Amino acid sequence: MDVVTQLRKFVVPESVALFGIPRYPREGGFNILQHLLSYGYQGRIYPIHPEADEILGVKTYRRVTEVAEHIDLAVINLPRSTVPWVTRDCVEKGISAVIITTQGFADANDMEGHQLQKEIDDIVRGKTRVLGPNTFGTANAFIKFSSSFAELNMERVPVGLICQSGVLYVGSPELRLVGKGIDLGNASDIDFADALEYFEQDSDVRVIALHTEGMRNTRRFLDIAGRVAQKKPIVALKTGRSRIAAQAAQSHTGSFGGRDEIWEVALKQCDIIRVNDIEELSDMVKTFSVLPLMKGRKLAVLSFTGGFGVASIDASEKFGLETAELSPATVERLKELYPPWLAVANPVDIWPAMILSRQPLLRVFRAALEALFSDPAVDAVLCICGISESAVCDRFRQYAERLTRDYPDKPLVWYIYGPLANEARNELEDTGKTQVFSSPDRAIRALAHLADYSQSLGEF
Amino acid sequence: MDVVTQLRKFVVPESVALFGIPRYPREGGFNILQHLLSYGYQGRIYPIHPEADEILGVKTYRRVTEVAEHIDLAVINLPRSTVPWVTRDCVEKGISAVIITTQGFADANDMEGHQLQKEIDDIVRGKTRVLGPNTFGTANAFIKFSSSFAELNMERVPVGLICQSGVLYVGSPELRLVGKGIDLGNASDIDFADALEYFEQDSDVRVIALHTEGMRNTRRFLDIAGRVAQKKPIVALKTGRSRIAAQAAQSHTGSFGGRDEIWEVALKQCDIIRVNDIEELSDMVKTFSVLPLMKGRKLAVLSFTGGFGVASIDASEKFGLETAELSPATVERLKELYPPWLAVANPVDIWPAMILSRQPLLRVFRAALEALFSDPAVDAVLCICGISESAVCDRFRQYAERLTRDYPDKPLVWYIYGPLANEARNELEDTGKTQVFSSPDRAIRALAHLADYSQSLGEF
After folding, report:
1. Complex ipTM above 0.85?
2. What is the dihedral sign for C-alpha A338, A341, A343, A348?
3. Which of A227, A444, B309, B365 is deepest in the core (most CB within 10 A)?
4. Within a 10 A sphere around the Cβ of B138, how many other Cβ atoms?
């Protein structure tokens, strides 16, 4: 079996055996079975329990070998000392995919953990693939499956997450990374390269998000990553930069970090988009899911406030975009909107024009926005606007829908302030064609990553 | 009159004359009078209008000189060509404080703008102080006053904002900077140094937020800032770093930027906390409003996830904090909570202990948190937690209340993920004693600024 076929059992299981399910709902609801039922997972479920006959209404089995039907995947969440014994049962049953969520193997600081890991390695070799130990396992919003004991907020986003930390699975209002997920944990068997190859061929996945603290077979990873990145953007958060952090990573997942400077160069050579923290990871996964690539580095800014126009130039220089020099035709169109004493330049400080014009405010804004989009010297547009009326949210949404349809190759992004900032963000992002950021700087950083990646693909 | 007495007329006016009020509510509600009435401002209001007898139920006057009572402040929002004429009336009436919100003076690219500015300068010299032109003017949540045509979301936070851009006034869900505000606009007369001296003596203001694109009298500013920073933290966002940005700033507010490297050194020498973008400004204003100063650089991290523990070490190195080496007594206390195979170290990966303990999960968490707070080798604690139950928010709030009371000198900060992240943030921040950040990195950056400032005051 090739690795893609093997991993499909983990990510798209048609049947699953569950070890270590509490008989009753538990504090914090950390019950995989309970979650699978509430998600609405449609596959067959076989809870294995030494004493119970049923749990939460599902028939249970004393041993997995008693199950008559074929089983795709086993999820083991038992005390570490019992894991080898249960794994042997799974191998005997012919289960080719086992997730071990339990901690205390290569991540432990005692001999026993390493010993137990070696036992498991010997049991599965050549027969069964292992994900983990010390992992949330897999998640798949498309079939409503997850092996995590935490309840996940999964969405059918076109994102494949490969990680070593459950925090990236759990999500939050700002953190939605999992359309499909593979948490490698200690990566005793299935590794980063395997997971990359899987998402490479998965047509539900258009963006790959990756979190690593380090890995053993870096060369194979980089070979495969370099190939995959030509097809789908890979956004990577590499933690454990410093010596102390690398030590902590060792005790967290048993990973070896390597020097950060080498990572920096290696990731760049593979055209992997490296990000520095969780917010940038979250921004970039969304950016690559939603926006078209930039076809150049020239940014136009349309701002209600001259102050943030100035700040956006700083950010463009910092992150490597250019402040677009507007075409003469665009300057002429804008001049018609402006009071004569106000210089027309990019960033376009549109507020004086709006407030001094005899036209309705938003008509002036829309005319300026269209002028910028139609300018061939502009590769993307950032709008910086204050919103205090619901009606304005609707209008902005209409502009965004029309412009992203008429100019599908130019990213449109926003920074919105004012009392209705959240409402406007929801309206705009609901179009699925434009993105609202929490600061002008973050918008420009995201566009710069788009341009970098686009350039690495030879788009300009 | 000294500058503080002069500025009090701007910030705490007991009476105000308004020029350029639309007779009827206007699109976007850009009507200062309407706003003052809805805020509930208690001072006397004199709208000046050449034709109306009343506007929105308030008696109006044809000229300000017809008003019998003394007037503290005039706010002029008229076409630029009429501003000198009206300003002359204000001087004649004996008004010593005039806000000119109108644009098109030093910020214009024509001669007329500069000419008009000179006229105004000649009219007011020695008699009346001017704030602006091209400004939102002042705001004061404590008396519910603002001269801005935009409706502000003011809160009685202990923050004095000095800026050159209305965007910082308007606010948003993330942006709450104005307890009191002085927007200098073009700063033709009242300048940064004046505003600093005002907030220096204002006991409602414990933190000063400053946004500048550049200024004329840098030396006086730095002299005063160096003095004020010893009493109250000054958090500064300096934009217009690059040559192009400095040009744009010139056309925005007529400011001259100067080289950024010089600003960097000068601000540092004054112990001003320089921030790089709007999010960092927002974080830091809140941090200095809410948290105690750090008495050292040693950070303890208590995390539900080993992955973010590792990331927090990276962030500590990046921003200049130290990963605290826990005292032997603390290590012993933590060991009692841990399975024997798990190494006790900072960052404290508490999840395995919680899940493997026979005690309730939160009792383990609380015990670990108390151990860290009681350790003299720890100067601040960052908690990284996932929350999926309302009951947990309540408990966390209780812990935060007790620990910040028992250890008033140690900042407690959080990064919260999970479905109830926002609810937990509201509960925790409602105590007024702790702060929740949008990422571990931002939490650590804020603590590092606290430590830097504290060290500059000689606290350690």
Report:
1. yes
2. negative
3. B309
4. 27
Q: What is the DSSP string of A383-444?
A: EEEE---HHHHHHHHHHHHHHHHH-TTS-EEEEEESTTHHHHHHHHHTTSS-EEESSHHHHH
Measured between CB atoms, does B28 come within 8 Å of chain A? Answer: yes
Say whether residue A264 is in contact with chain B using an 8 A CB cutoff.
no
A306–B422 C-beta distance less than 8 A? no
* Residue from B381, B401, B237, B183 nearest B300 by CA: B381
Cβ neighbours of residue A345 under 8 Å, at least 6 residues apart? Answer: A326, B248, B251
- What is the C-alpha separation between A260 and B313, in angstroms, rounded? 14
> C-alpha A228: how far from its chain's center?
16
What are the chain B neighbours of A301 within 8 Å (beta carbons)?
none
Chain B hits for A30, CB-CB cut-off 8 Å, are 355
Q: What is the pLDDT along chain B (460 residues), one digit of tens a residue?
A: 799 999 999 999 999 999 999 887 665 556 899 999 999 999 999 999 999 999 999 999 999 999 999 999 999 999 999 999 999 999 999 999 999 999 999 988 899 999 999 999 999 999 999 999 999 999 999 999 999 988 887 889 999 999 988 888 887 666 678 899 999 999 999 999 999 999 999 999 999 999 998 888 889 999 999 999 999 999 999 988 777 777 776 666 666 566 788 889 999 999 999 999 999 999 999 999 999 999 999 999 999 988 899 999 999 999 999 999 999 999 999 999 998 888 899 999 998 888 888 888 899 999 999 999 999 999 999 999 999 889 999 999 999 999 999 999 999 999 999 889 999 999 999 999 999 999 999 999 999 999 999 999 999 9
